[in-house]
Amino acid sequence: MEPPELENPQSKNMQEERSDEDASDHDSEEEECDVAEMKKTRSKSLVEFRFRVEEAIRGNYLLGRKNDEGENAENFRDIRLWGVPLLPSHGHEGTDTVLMKFLKAKRYKVHEAFTLLRKTLKWRGDFRPDEVVGEEFRPEIIDLWFTSGRDKIGRPLCYIILGKEWQKKMLSTEEYLRWRVLCLEKGIQNLSFRPGGVDSLIQIIDLKNSPGTASKEVKLICKRIIAMHQDNYPALVYKNLIINVPSWFMALNTLNLRLITQKSRNKFIFVKSSRVTETLLKYATAENLLVEYGGLKRENDTEFSTDDKVLEVNIRPGTTEVIQIPANEVGVTVTWDVTVVGYEVGYKEEFVPDDDCSYIVLIQEKKMLESIRNSFHIREPGKLVITIVNGAYTKKKAFYRYKSCPSVPMYMLIKSYKPSLTL
Fold first, then answer.
1. Residue 11 and residue 14: Cα distance in Å, rounded?
2. Looking at the domain that runs over 130-284, which CATH code has it been given?
3. Does residue 54 sit in helix, strand or coil?
4. What would the pLDDT profile of 107-124 be if each residue is shown by its tens digit?
5. Residue 66 DSSP one-character state
6. How many CB atoms lie within 10 A of CB 7?
7. What is the dihedral of CA 95, 101, 106, 107, to 10 degrees?
8. pTM
9. 3-state class of 232 per DSSP?
10. Which CATH class for the 301-412 domain?
11. Could you report the per-residue pLDDT of 216-225, keeping only the tens digit for each?
């Protein structure tokens, strides 16, 4: 009697691997089919939506009523939204991008998207946001909104400083609402609705120093702002990052956010003070994030730009990290930027010469509580050594950049200066 064949473990493993690969390939094929089907459905919805908008504009009933014939009808056919013509046959390359925003907001349901478009156009006719852009608000109010830098995809970062504005009680409810519309409209001016362009923005809303208790007026304002975003600016704001959030504001908006869809709710991210830099760096690079929020960007900066390379270092808990900046060229000034997410680390800067007979120069030593910029004139070859001590139980991340340029030290300028004597 022949002995039974022994099963080869290696063969069995190979069969299992092939089986897993086959299953993986099958899942990949299904995912590809799902993506292809989704694209097909969206394209079909866009074609249907284009036809419906075209028909409504040419029939002069896009706003829900029959418009005047003649010259007014011709003007109506040039109707625009955010500067983009809505008539598909006009051939503008941004029309499809704008129409897709309404489809996305309504999960590609054409009838609901068409209703939302009508609602938005009616609201713009009543509120007239284009005229708000031309209004003269007080300078102290205008300064509470600004755009600075872009996220990792290229979306503009728009800052709204609500804490100061509420604290000083500068705006009435209606004035505040018009100001927020102004902020959105000015942010939209930084967008491009052409294929491949950046067609959404990020709003960073800072509530630092905001009042301690939410009044009925504030609750009403928050409710109206959320509704305005959802109903009249679909898919234009990628994220609303509400930072330095006090506890009362979190509780208030938990109730307000129940009134909107889950998709719109995901656009609102509430960030406590201790996690501001960490959260913002998920969207923007350090060179695009303002120093006030833990980044390296300074307004009207003459030393660095966003094109200057930024290096990154991870600092493990309870360890010391050393950053070395080469300084081999004499007669130049080296300038550097350093920031650590979360701060609260020991920080020291030194110049270490190559010549063992020269002295090490201690530039500064302190506890880091903010982003640091410093410079040092190089008189002999060596290196700049930055020591960061992380005494916390959590990992920290440091970002830094540096550059050098020829310079003359201040003491030589003073020495060469000889004032003329006047008799």
1. 5
2. 3.40.525.10
3. helix
4. 999 999 999 999 999 999
5. P
6. 8
7. 100
8. 0.80
9. helix
10. mainly beta
11. 666 677 778 8
